């Protein structure tokens, strides 16, 4: 968690997991996270999944070109197909440009 | 979960809960959600908390003025003070304007 510069691109992924293939999903999620952090323009990621299988992952990128390059990364694309086939019943993805950002920590 | 119009304002709130005051927090969270949906310009909200206490809530608003009006709502402001005093150890808040939005549901 951190304050983000104005113009940062946030990619908000809200997804409902199915019950299928927990092990395969966990492997792929760990792989994608490890791969994302290596990409040009990657800043950070916040990710939470609730006990009902609903998850929100927000990744932050320095610019639109970096976010799009990650979207089009061949391994990411392949994993997205498995997501549709197996892991998710529905999802939304919103790309949004940061206009204000705050950060607070208990003193 | 839904596709959002370009220009929608997303408010991304990422917060780490303390262990304190679970009942008070649950009451306030339910109250705030009920109040938010009544505000002018409110579109939707996605919210998840993990077992480690990390939570992400994203609320979506038709425009910046509506998002700011909700930020400045007196009851919301009062609850934010309790958040800092009791419920959260740290949080980030990012306001971002939607440029692209997708929605998928298993056929």
Automatic annotation (TrEMBL), chains A, B:
InterPro entries: ABM_dom (IPR007138), Dimeric_a/b-barrel (IPR011008), Jasmonate_Hydroxylase-like (IPR052936). Residues 23-80 form the ABM domain. One of its GO terms (molecular function) is monooxygenase activity. The keyword Oxidoreductase applies. The keyword Oxidoreductase applies. Keywords: Monooxygenase, Oxidoreductase. This is Heme-degrading monooxygenase HmoA. It comes from Sphingorhabdus rigui.
């Amino acid at each position: 968690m951190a304050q983000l510069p104005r113009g940062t691109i946030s990619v908000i992924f809200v997804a409902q997991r199915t019950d299928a293939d927990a092990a395969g999903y966990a492997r792929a999620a760990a792989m994608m996270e490890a791969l994302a952090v290596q990409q040009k323009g990657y800043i950070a990621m916040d990710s939470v999944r609730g006990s009902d299988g609903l998850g929100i992952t927000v990744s932050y990128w320095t610019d639109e070109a970096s976010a799009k390059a990650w979207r089009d990364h061949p391994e990411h694309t392949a994993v997205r197909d498995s997501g549709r086939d197996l892991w998710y019943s529905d999802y939304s993805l919103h790309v949004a440009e940061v206009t204000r950002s705050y950060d607070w920590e208990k003193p």
